Amino acid sequence: MIRISLDFLEKGHLHQLDRYLSPETQSIALEVIFWALSYTLFVQIFSHVLRKVYRRTKIWNYARQREGVFLGNGRDDAVLLTCLGIHHGFAAYLMYKGLTTNHPNTWRHGFLVETGFEVSDYVALILGIYPYAKHDGFKDDIKVALVVHHIPGIVLSVFVMGCGLYKNSHMQKICLCLLGGAFVSCLSTVFTYALNFQTQMTQVAIAFNINAGFFLWCRWYIYPIESIALLKDVHADPALNDGILLYLLYAGGILMAIFNLGICADVLPKCVRYIKRAIDGVTPIETKPVPSSRDSMLYRSGAGGGGNGGRRRSSILVAVDSVSPVSSKARRLSMTTIMGMNAVEDVVQTSKNEDDGDEDLDQDDLAALHRTVSSMGDNDKKDR
Fold it and tell me: b/e map of 106-123 (b: 16 or more CB within 10 Å)?
């Protein structure tokens, strides 16, 4: 069995900085930087690979019709949630291993893995790279929530590690339940993206409500109980209760409670809608229009497919332009034969492949094609 040691992260420090920062503080900072860089490379590369993989699955077709949790469209959200799920799962595993084997340093690595992600997320937001690039469609309200959500983890990391609080079992259980709940939520949401809401709504409703139930159990049962126990331990320790740590714990708890309330306000109404939809088959899931996916926006702007737009969109728009009423009759007829039929063939082929997740066409394409076909018919009558 292959074993990977992370001991080098515990001992990392620069002797030149020992006059200004303790070796312990340096090792914490260096490990956070290490995990932040690791996650940045992982998400930038793996998201690109994963997008190509998902284009060949049913997720790409079914998720397109759903609003995402973090990103506007379900297609893009499935990619991000898979990346987050892998990351959260790795961090939760280290925490679980440290808790169950009574090895606090292993738990500490899991905590700093998560802190590194939070730092990386801030950097991505500032630099405007994935998942915060223009066409990624990150929701503005979720963006604000995450900015607030990341603050406790980053600020507390130095204090939790520096004062030895990471050895407290209540602290370990709090972070494990929060991260474990996030891990399960990521996997469950990606699973529902792979289901057809028209024919598999019962499975969707069951999966969604089980996920919501586990989330609520973690956030509103385990978290409050262990938080109260942790605060009692801190109050009982003279070395911990006479300083800023206690105030930071209270502030972090309040911010986390606000974050939990915001998620509940979004999730609980969906639980009801999913159950009603599974029963009556007509209750709408989405309460507002679903934003376009990243691919659709890139195709529309001509940024996809090497700068020439997407393959299907290219043939349709060229056909639309070619048969425009402002063009000459001769050019219109010739280009209709050459390009218009390609566009129609694309539409037919898209319809055939709809259940196979091979859908690159959006409603703007179809609307433009329909208008063009109608104008072709009107002009043909006039010419006769």
Answer: bbbbbbbbbbbbbbbbbe
Structure tokens at 32: 């956070």
Q: Using CB atoms within 10 A of its CB, is residue 381 exposed (0-12), middle (13-18) or buried (19+)?
A: exposed
3-state SS string for 116-166: HHHHHHHHHHHHCCCCCCHHHCECHHHHHHHHHHHHHHHHHHHHHHHCCHH
- Give the single-character DSSP code of 63: G
Separation between Cα atoms, residue 340 and residue 20, nearest integer Å: 71
CA–CA dist 176, 168 (Å, integer): 12
Residues 130 and 165: beta-carbon distance below 8 Å = no
Residues 132 and 126: their CA atoms lie apart, in Å, by: 9
Would you report the helix, strand and coil content of the chain in percent, each value rounded to 5?
75, 0, 20
Which pLDDT tens digit goes with each residue over 243-288? Answer: 788 888 998 888 888 888 988 998 999 999 999 999 999 998 887 8
Q: Residue 181 in contact with residue 274, Cβ under 8 Å?
A: no
Between CA 275 and CA 60 the distance in angstroms is: 24
Mean of per-residue pLDDT scores for the chain: 82
pLDDT at position 3: 59
Asked which of 130-134, 189-193, 363-367, 370-374 is least confident by mean pLDDT, the reply is 363-367
Residues in contact with 268: Cβ distance below 8 Å, sequence separation at least 6, in sequence order: 212
Cα–Cα distance measured from residue 229 to residue 173, given in angstroms and rounded to the nearest whole number: 11
| Locus of tokens 């993989």 | 53
User: Can you give the pTM of this predicted structure?
Assistant: 0.78
Band (pLDDT 50/70/90 cuts) for residue 4 is low
What is the Cα–Cα distance from 239 to 31, expressed in whole angstroms? 26
Q: At what angle do helices 341-352 and 363-383 cross, to 10 degrees?
A: 140
pLDDT one-digit tens code per residue, 130-180:
999 989 999 998 899 888 889 888 888 888 888 889 999 999 999 999 999
Tell me the CA distances in angstroms from 160 to 87, 93, 108, 182, 366, one per residue in order: 21, 19, 9, 21, 56
Q: Tell me, what DSSP letter sits at residue 66?
A: S
Q: How far apart are CA 159 and CA 243, in angstroms?
A: 11
Structure tokens, 193: 């993206």
Q: How many CB atoms lie within 10 A of CB 338?
A: 12
